[in-house]
């Protein structure tokens, strides 16, 4: 027994020893020479590379993490419920950043090795290495190491920037995790102290003494009682992320074995291989290289010149507005990209752009010379709108000409054309009545300016809703002057052919072919009715005969229910009086008898309620416009040109050939336009109602009408691009109309065939993004679909639902386990779900041997797909092949599935694609379809080419320098630079940023230098404090100009220059001096004006320089001219302009002695509806309003005061302030008032125009100049009876015009001058009222003596004293 007991004791001790030895052997491991031959547990993209390196991610984004685990589990407790033993981990890793960033990599302790939905759930401890901010963990740095417990998605207990403490000085050094270099990490857990230490260092540095991160964590309360697995995890969310582990060691109850870095596997090379450069200096090669460089330089310069070449004509210098360079406009539109296109029509294309310097949004119309009316309309528009400035006219900012094309640059109107709102195009909302009325009034104001206010009469000839554009505030702007005609005021227009848009053309145009302002009024009347009623001028959709809008309105007017025809969308939301006014005004303007139409001046007065609208008489409206048009011979005229209709409107008189509609034949050209358009309407209806098209084919998509949404677009080369370089986007392209797949609602789905050519390009080489799909679905609205793996078709809630009625062929380039994908390069058939019913590796079967040839869906070579469905056998065949090899006989996929259970009666077909955190470009090059017939064969030679997204191959230039050639080259450059600098200094100018946005045409100093023959004294016109004015002649156009040359030494020089360029630079009015352009040099400023032959008005009033006396007719016309110009400045331009210096010396006279207001050096601008902010007094003594001296604030009424003084000055021939022989100041206003109080107002009229009263004016003058007695209570002067006798009025007129003036006009001018120069602003009229008084439209209010009991001199002296 004793021996047996001893034996058992010996056996127990040996087993314990063996167990201890075994345990000791299992407590450590090390992978120092890589992981080849290891049996690690790998999940996801994790793999061991041939050189032994552990690759956790491979650069693709699979959306599932990758894992590498030690093959056997570890027991971290010695006994159940015991404490976790100490352990130590050491590993070497390398993290390469992806396209966006490198994702999280971590060392972890797991309770299990099994995957659950692609992940190992419930990690207990993780050492996270984060190279970019991960919102799940809320790291505060892009280069962090943190410790997380129990798979926590809240902030870890400890986070620290990656780095190490120097053992010598204790300084912390940052260490990038993704710098491309390997780093070494140590993780140590002290079981007794329950502390975790994390240390990191560069690969070649030994372990630092001080850990980077240290925290107290009792893992005994964290880890499970059972065994646990240890290993690494890495996310694959980012494209291009490459995470490697080079070595790994572990120790339980002992330090982890030291990794010998010399034995670690080598990292793969990242980026191109560095090539050595060897210089070979050989004379022949050097000479050849120099010749090639010179030739290449010359070629590049010539090519660049030709690329941006432009055309110049002589007339452009005289008439043209600002001329842009083609390169500037090329950059403005980013190379005229298709996505910048705003509209397309017969004239060409319109692009949206942003001027690079001013960031100002513009619209650029690009007209081809091949356009039949291109150059002719271009010149018309340049000459007319190029100089027109009005707040209700689309402003032409400039232009450019090239060989073969013309470009016009306009203000960009963000809300597009009015017709889209009236007729509900593109989902536009309904305009309320206030907007419509304001638009009507705005267009009327613009037409009034064109007909009467500009320097010439402009007939627009194409007024219609589509030519009215709306700005951001929904104000109407009349545009498209391509058919405009100009002629001088007082002349007769000479146009002799019909032009315009059918429905807006006045009846008399058919007889005479002559356009006039009244033909514009007719079109405006139709426009009013269209805006008010919301109906087109001609309704071509009626079943029997076309309905004419005017006839329709007249019919309701005759019934007495005029307002009932208001647009039904406005019922209950309108001003009944305004509606009644505009409808009657529309009928008045659209009267077929031109003599019964009002002028635009009268139209404005009716709209502003300044004149009552005439009653409409039944005899004037007893007509049928349809009959009138037919009787007037409209059917005898050929097609009428129209300049702007991007989409075909049934009322536009023009023919555009479309698929399925025959082009206009010669016989149709002589047919009534109404019949022609009815024919088009019937043809369009026939196409819409004919049912399904049996076939269609696209070989490129330029000009196609596919429905696009999301990121989808049609490129300039004709490709359909579904996606781009943006992340998390989707794009769809579908056939514009649904197709009927069943012959009857309850029938079966018919056979169909589809073929398409596609290309998938990656911006990052072999890195894969998502694929795309061909679909047939009940709707082409995929707004609820998700991007990323859902391909823009479905989302996480409806995937797999039978209510989707979706059939799709997916071409997928990412493996997604959620959808059961077989790999990352496959083709699948999807029914209501992205979990394919069947799928196969991408490839095709050879017709020769039947072998499967695999192909990559991503690449620069297009692929072709054929999809066929047999309605009888319900078999679906999908075939794939490289483009050009033909269709293989054996399909890649075959599936029997009855699509009658899936597809709806009507369904859309098209393409869908999306991107996630990786991007890709998905293109469709061609597409064909056949219902019950084979899809038409796509000709590969006619398809557009795929773009090259990779870097362009760079030419290899030999780096050879020849000393002699270099010296000659440098010398030649030096000489050229010296010559250029010398020339540049001679004509040097100064440019400011504001000039791009505000400036008119900029002249070169060289041109102005030659125009004035070097600014010679004999060309000097005048001299003043501002500088000098020279007469000159522009070299090209031979146009006479006046050039104001202002020196910087002038106190107000630069300030006045800026004010004048910003204001008058955009003003265009026949009574405002035109600023043609400017120039700036260092030390001087130059302004170029129209030359006014007869100089300034003051020289004629005071007979300076031997000037003759102006007669009364000339003076009164000058007063009206300046009033018209001030009205334009105050109310009709884009902004309110306060001139602040209205006086006789600033009024210049042209050849016909018309007055033009000039010198805008003191002008101030502000927006309509805002308050002016000027706070200092400027102007000329005698013309300054009293309140301006008191408050220093200029307003439009201070201009009115100056204008009142100007009227009195012109009428009386006296200066505003003069001294008598005793040195006393005599105020012109006081002198006129004194004579008015005496009853001798006309004594103040210039004596040179006074004389006997004209008998025919006797009654008028007595009526205007006779008043009854008044009691004056506000003045010391009391008149019991004051009689204003005709003879006593004559005493006030300028003695120089005695005997030759209109008494009624003289009385009117004097009284209006007193009203305007009243010291109290609220008594003065505005300039619109002034114009009505001068034109005789409104009688002048009676002057009350109690309103004019003041002494202007005393007021001025008092205010000066107060000031």
TrEMBL record:
One Pfam family recorded for the sequence: Pkinase
Domain of life: Eukaryota
Record-linked CDD domains: lectin_legume_LecRK_Arcelin_ConA, STKc_IRAK
Occurrences of domain Protein kinase (ranges): 336-616, 1015-1343
MF terms (GO), sorted A to Z: ATP binding; carbohydrate binding; protein serine/threonine kinase activity
Signal peptide region: 1-24
Enzyme Commission (EC) number: 2.7.11.1
GO cellular component: plasma membrane
Gene Ontology biological-process entries: negative regulation of response to salt stress
Main subcellular localisation: membrane
Residue intervals passing through the bilayer: 91-110, 281-303, 960-981
Annotated binding of ATP, by residue: 365, 1044
Membrane topology annotation: Single-pass type I membrane protein
InterPro entries: ConA-like_dom_sf (IPR013320), Kinase-like_dom_sf (IPR011009), L-type_Lectin-RKs (IPR050528), Legume_lectin_dom (IPR001220), Prot_kinase_dom (IPR000719), Protein_kinase_ATP_BS (IPR017441), Ser/Thr_kinase_AS (IPR008271)
UniProt keyword terms in alphabetical order: ATP-binding, Cell membrane, Glycoprotein, Kinase, Lectin, Membrane, Nucleotide-binding, Receptor, Serine/threonine-protein kinase, Signal, Transferase, Transmembrane, Transmembrane helix
Xref: Gene3D superfamilies: 2.60.120.200, Phosphorylase Kinase, domain 1, Transferase(Phosphotransferase) domain 1
PROSITE patterns named among the record's database cross-references: PROTEIN_KINASE_ATP (PS00107), PROTEIN_KINASE_DOM (PS50011), PROTEIN_KINASE_ST (PS00108)
Catalyzed reactions: L-seryl-[protein] + ATP = O-phospho-L-seryl-[protein] + ADP + H(+); L-threonyl-[protein] + ATP = O-phospho-L-threonyl-[protein] + ADP + H(+)
Subcellular location: Cell membrane
Keyword Phosphoprotein attached: no
Keyword Transferase set for record: yes
PANTHER family tied to this protein: PTHR27007
Family: In the C-terminal section; belongs to the protein kinase superfamily. Ser/Thr protein kinase family. In the N-terminal section; belongs to the leguminous lectin family.
Protein's name in the database: non-specific serine/threonine protein kinase
């Amino acid at each position: 027994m004793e021996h047996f007991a001893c034996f058992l004791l010996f056996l127990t001790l040996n087993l314990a020893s063996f167990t201890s030895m075994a345990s000791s052997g299992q407590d450590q491991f090390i992978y120092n020479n890589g992981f080849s031959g290891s049996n690690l547990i790998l999940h996801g993209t994790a793999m061991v590379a041939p050189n032994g390196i552990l690759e956790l991610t491979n650069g693709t984004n699979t959306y599932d993490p990758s894992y590498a685990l030690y093959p056997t589990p570890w027991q971290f407790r010695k006994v159940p419920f015991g404490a976790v033993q100490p352990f130590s981990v050491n590993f070497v890793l390398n993290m390469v950043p992806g396209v966006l960033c490198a994702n999280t990599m971590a060392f972890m302790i797991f309770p299990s090795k099994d995957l659950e939905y692609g992940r190992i759930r419930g990690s207990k401890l993780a050492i996270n290495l984060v190279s970019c901010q991960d919102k799940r963990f809320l790291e505060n740095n892009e280069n962090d190491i943190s410790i997380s417990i129990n798979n926590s998605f809240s902030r870890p207990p400890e986070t620290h920037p990656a780095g190490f403490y120097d053992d010598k000085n204790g300084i912390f050094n940052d260490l990038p995790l993704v710098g491309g270099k390997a780093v070494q990490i140590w993780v140590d857990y002290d079981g007794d102290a329950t502390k975790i230490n994390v240390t990191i260092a560069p690969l070649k540095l030994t372990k630092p003494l001080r850990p980077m991160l240290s925290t107290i964590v009792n893992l005994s309360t964290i880890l499970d009682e059972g065994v646990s697995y240890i290993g690494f995890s890495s996310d694959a969310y980012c494209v291009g992320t490459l995470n490697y582990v080079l070595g790994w060691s572990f120790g339980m109850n002992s330090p982890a074995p030291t990794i010998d870095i010399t034995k670690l596997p080598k990292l793969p090379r990242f980026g191109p291989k560095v090539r050595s450069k060897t210089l070979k200096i050989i004379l022949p090669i050097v000479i050849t290289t120099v010749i090639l460089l010179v030739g290449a330089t010359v070629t590049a310069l010539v090519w660049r010149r030709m690329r941006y070449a432009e055309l110049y004509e002589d007339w452009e210098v005289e008439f043209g507005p600002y001329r842009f360079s083609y390169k500037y406009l090329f950059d403005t539109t980013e190379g005229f990209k298709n996505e910048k296109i705003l509209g397309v029509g017969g004239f060409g294309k319109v692009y949206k752009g942003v001027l690079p310097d001013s960031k100002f949004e513009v619209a650029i119309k690009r007209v081809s010379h091949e356009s039949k009316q291109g150059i002719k309309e271009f010149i018309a528009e340049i000459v007319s709108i190029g100089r027109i400035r009005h707040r209700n006219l689309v402003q032409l900012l400039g232009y450019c000409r090239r060989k073969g094309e013309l470009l016009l640059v306009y203000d960009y109107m963000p809300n597009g054309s009015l017709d889209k709102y009236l007729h509900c195009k593109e989902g536009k909302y309904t305009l309320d009545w206030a907007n419509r009325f304001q638009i009507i009034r705005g267009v009327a104001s613009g037409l009034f300016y064109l007909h009467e206010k500009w320097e010439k009469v402009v007939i627009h000839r194409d007024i219609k809703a589509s030519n009215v554009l709306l700005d951001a505030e929904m104000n109407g702007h009349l545009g498209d002057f391509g058919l405009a005609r100009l002629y001088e005021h007082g002349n007769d227009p000479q146009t002799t052919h019909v032009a315009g848009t059918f429905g807006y053309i006045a009846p008399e145009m058919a007889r005479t072919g002559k356009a006039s302002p009244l033909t514009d009024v007719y079109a405006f009347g139709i426009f009013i009715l269209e805006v008010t009623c919301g109906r087109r001028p001609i309704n071509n959709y009626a079943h029997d005969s076309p309905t004419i809008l005017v006839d329709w309105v007249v019919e309701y007017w005759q019934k007495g229910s005029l307002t009932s025809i208001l647009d039904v969308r406005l019922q209950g939301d309108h001003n009944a009086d305004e509606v009644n006014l505009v409808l009657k005004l529309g009928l008045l303007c659209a009267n077929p008898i031109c003599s019964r139409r009002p002028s635009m001046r009268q139209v404005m007065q009716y709209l502003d309620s300044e004149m009552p609208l005439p009653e409409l008489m039944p005899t004037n409206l007893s007509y049928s416009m349809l009959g009138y048009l037919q009787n007037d011979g409209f059917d005898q005229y050929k097609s009428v040109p129209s300049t702007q209709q991007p989409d075909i409107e049934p009322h536009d008189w023009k023919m555009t050939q479309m698929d399925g509609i025959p082009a206009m034949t010669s016989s149709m050209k002589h047919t009534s336009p109404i019949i022609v358009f009815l024919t088009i309407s019937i043809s369009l209806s026939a196409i819409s109602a004919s049912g399904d098209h049996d076939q269609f084919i696209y070989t490129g998509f330029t000009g196609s009408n596919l429905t696009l949404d999301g990121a989808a677009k049609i490129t300039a080369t004709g490709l359909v691009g579904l996606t781009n370089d943006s992340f998390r986007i989707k794009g769809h392209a579908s056939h514009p109309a649904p197709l009927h797949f069943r012959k009857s609602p309850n029938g079966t789905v018919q056979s169909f065939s589809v073929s398409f050519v596609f290309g998938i390009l990656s911006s990052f080489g072999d890195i894969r993004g998502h694929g795309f799909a061909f679909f047939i679905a009940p709707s082409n609205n995929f707004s609820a679909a998700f991007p990323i793996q859902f391909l823009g078709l479905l989302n996480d809630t409806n995937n797999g639902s039978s209510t989707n009625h979706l059939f799709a062929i997916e071409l997928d380039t990412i493996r997604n386990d959620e959808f059961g994908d077989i790999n990352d390069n496959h083709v699948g058939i999807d029914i209501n779900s992205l979990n394919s019913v069947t799928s196969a590796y991408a490839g095709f079967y050879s017709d020769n041997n039947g072998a499967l040839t695999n192909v990559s869906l991503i690449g620069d070579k297009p692929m072709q797909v054929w999809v066929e469905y047999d309605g009888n056998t319900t078999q679906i065949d999908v075939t794939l092949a490289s483009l050009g090899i033909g269709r293989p006989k054996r399909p890649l996929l075959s599936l029997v599935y009855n699509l009658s259970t899936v597809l709806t009666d009507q369904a859309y077909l098209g393409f869908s694609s999306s991107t996630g955190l990786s991007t890709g470009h998905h293109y469709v090059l061609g597409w064909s379809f056949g219902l019950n017939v084979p899809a038409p064969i796509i000709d590969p030679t006619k398809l557009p080419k795929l773009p090259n997204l990779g870097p362009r191959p760079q030419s290899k230039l030999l780096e050879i320098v020849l000393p002699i050639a270099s010296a000659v080259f440098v010398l030649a450059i030096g000489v050229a630079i010296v010559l250029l600098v010398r020339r540049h200094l001679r004509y040097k100018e100064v440019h400011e940023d504001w000039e791009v946005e505000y400036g008119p045409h900029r002249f070169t100093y060289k041109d102005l230098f030659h125009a004035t023959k070097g600014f010679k004294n004999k060309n000097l016109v005048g001299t003043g404090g501002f500088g000098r004015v020279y007469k000159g002649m522009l070299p090209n156009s031979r146009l006479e100009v006046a050039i104001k040359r202002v020196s910087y030494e002038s106190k107000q020089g630069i300030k006045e220059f800026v004010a004048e360029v910003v204001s008058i630079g955009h003003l265009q009015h026949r009574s405002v001096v035109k600023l043609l352009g400017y120039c700036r040099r260092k030390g001087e400023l130059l302004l170029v004006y129209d030359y006014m032959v007869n100089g300034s008005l003051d020289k004629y009033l005071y007979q300076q320089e031997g000037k003759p006396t102006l007669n009364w007719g000339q003076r009164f016309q000058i007063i009206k001219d300046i009033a018209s110009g001030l009205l334009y400045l105050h109310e009709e331009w884009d902004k309110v302009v306060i001139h602040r210096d209205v006086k006789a010396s600033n009024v210049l006279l042209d050849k016909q002695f018309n007055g033009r207001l000039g010198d805008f050096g003191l002008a101030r601008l502000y927006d309509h509806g805002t308050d002016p902010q000027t706070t200092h007094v400027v102007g000329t003594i005698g013309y300054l309003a009293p309140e301006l001296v008191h408050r220093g604030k200029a307003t439009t009424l201070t201009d009115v005061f100056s204008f009142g003084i100007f009227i009195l000055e012109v009428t009386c021939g006296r200066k505003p302030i003069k001294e008598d022989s005793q040195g006393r100041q005599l105020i012109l206003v006081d002198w006129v008032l004194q004579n008015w109080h005496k009853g001798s107002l006309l004594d103040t009229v210039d004596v040179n125009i006074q004389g006997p009263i004209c008998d025919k004016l006797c009654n008028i003058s007595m009526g205007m100049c006779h008043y009854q007695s008044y009691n004056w209570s506000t003045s010391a002067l009391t008149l019991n009876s004051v009689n204003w006798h005709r003879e006593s009025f004559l005493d006030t007129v300028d003695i120089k015009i005695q005997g030759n003036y209109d008494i009624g006009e003289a009385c009117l001018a004097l009284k209006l001058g007193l009203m305007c120069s009243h010291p109290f602003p609220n008594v003065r009229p505005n300039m619109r009222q002034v114009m009505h008084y001068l034109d005789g439209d409104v009688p002048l209010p009676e002057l009350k003596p109690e309103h004019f009991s003041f002494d202007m001199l005393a007021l001025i002296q008092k205010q000066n004293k107060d000031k």
